[in-house]
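Dear H.,

Thanks for agreeing to be a second pair of eyes. The structure we're designing against is below in token form, covering all 92 positions.
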């Protein structure tokens, strides 16, 4: 696990702890329903990346699609690390 994935896991664990305290915001408020499935194009739009960047991230394992007959699908919860990277690089 790289540092970014470890950080995302820690943040998610903090969210789980804080959510038990009944805070006024939720993960869904911040990032959307984590079980939402996104298509390939929706992922590219969400992360504001090109087709070549998408292919490179899938090849190096940064993005891990669920392979379905209708095309790749992603769970929103699995895109958090990529979202944070895009945010850091100023794409979002």
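And this is the sequence the design step returned. I haven't edited it by hand at all.
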């Amino acid at each position: 696990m790289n540092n970014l994935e470890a950080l995302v896991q820690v943040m998610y664990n903090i969210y789980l702890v804080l959510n038990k305290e009944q805070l006024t915001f939720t993960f869904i408020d911040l990032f959307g329903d984590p079980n939402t499935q996104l298509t390939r194009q929706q992922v590219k739009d969400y992360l504001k990346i090109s087709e070549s960047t998408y292919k490179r991230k899938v090849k190096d394992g940064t993005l891990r699609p669920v392979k379905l007959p209708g095309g790749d699908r992603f769970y929103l919860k699995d895109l958090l690390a990529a979202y944070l990277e895009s945010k850091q690089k100023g794409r979002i």
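Two observations from my side: The longest helix spans residues 3-20. The first strand starts at residue 37 and ends at 39.

Warmly,
E.
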